[in-house]
Amino acid sequence: MSTTTGTKPRTQAGTLAQLRGLILGLQKQLPSGSFTLLSTVYTTPALVTALQGTITALVAVTAAHAALEVALAAYDAEKAKMGPVTLALRRILQSMYANAPDTLAVFGMEPPKVPAPRTAAQKAATAAKAKATRRARGTTSKKQKSAITGNVTGISIVPITAPAAVVSEPR
User: Fold this and answer.
1) Do 42 and 34 meet the contact criterion of CB atoms below 8 Å apart?
2) What CA dihedral angle connects 99, 104, 109 and 113, to 10 degrees?
3) Which helix (H) or strand (E) holds 170?
4) Exposure of 123 by Cβ count < 10 A (0-12 exposed, 13-18 middle, 19+ buried)?
5) Are the C-beta atoms of residues 64 and 36 closer than 8 Å to each other?
6) What are 34's strand-pairing partners?
7) How many angstroms separate the CA atoms of 167 and 135, rounded?
8) E strand or H helix at 42, and its extent?
């Protein structure tokens, strides 16, 4: 909602204040005025009524926002209380009916997905990377260990290693 000065309020309260100011100004300064705005002729009482309708709608929006905040707070409290219970119930139902997808569907659940079997090359790559990582880490502090990784860059059944990384001395 723009004003006569061309500034836009940044809050609903600012918009309300501007609309109320327009109404007061029209009633005080131009009580029997007539205006042509956007090709429509308005009298001061008609403009006041239209602006009051906008105020009523904005107040309703403000009340709805407040009600939404209250409802969201209530939902968050309920979710905090019942979230772990619901999770535990879902886990029990999944273990009870793991082999009965039709029964799980009654509860609105799907059976857990079985991971695809890993290929021999994937297993070999994992083992090579783990071995290289253990070798590269050596015996260092926990923080230093987390910063170091293995230097395996590819696998062709035999690990292909990159040049050893330079590890800086702890300060």
Assistant:
1) yes
2) 10
3) none
4) exposed
5) no
6) 43
7) 13
8) strand 40-43
Task: Check: CB of residue 58 under 8 Å from CB of residue 16.
Answer: yes
Q: Which of 156, 155, 128, 144 is nearest to 165 (CA)?
A: 144
- Residue 74: which H helix or E strand, with range? helix 44-96
For residue 70, what are its two tokens?
């209250």
Q: How many other CB atoms are found less than 10 A from the CB of residue 1? A: 13
Counting every residue written for the chain, the total comes to: 171
pLDDT of residue 55: 93
DSSP class of residue 60 equals H
Provide the terminal-to-terminal Cα distance of the chain, rounded to the nearest Å. Answer: 61
Tens place of pLDDT for every residue, the chain, 171 residues? Answer: 444 556 777 888 889 999 999 999 999 988 888 888 898 898 999 999 999 999 999 999 999 999 999 999 999 999 999 999 999 999 999 999 988 889 999 999 988 788 899 999 999 999 999 888 877 877 666 777 777 777 777 766 666 677 776 666 665
* pTM for this entry: 0.48
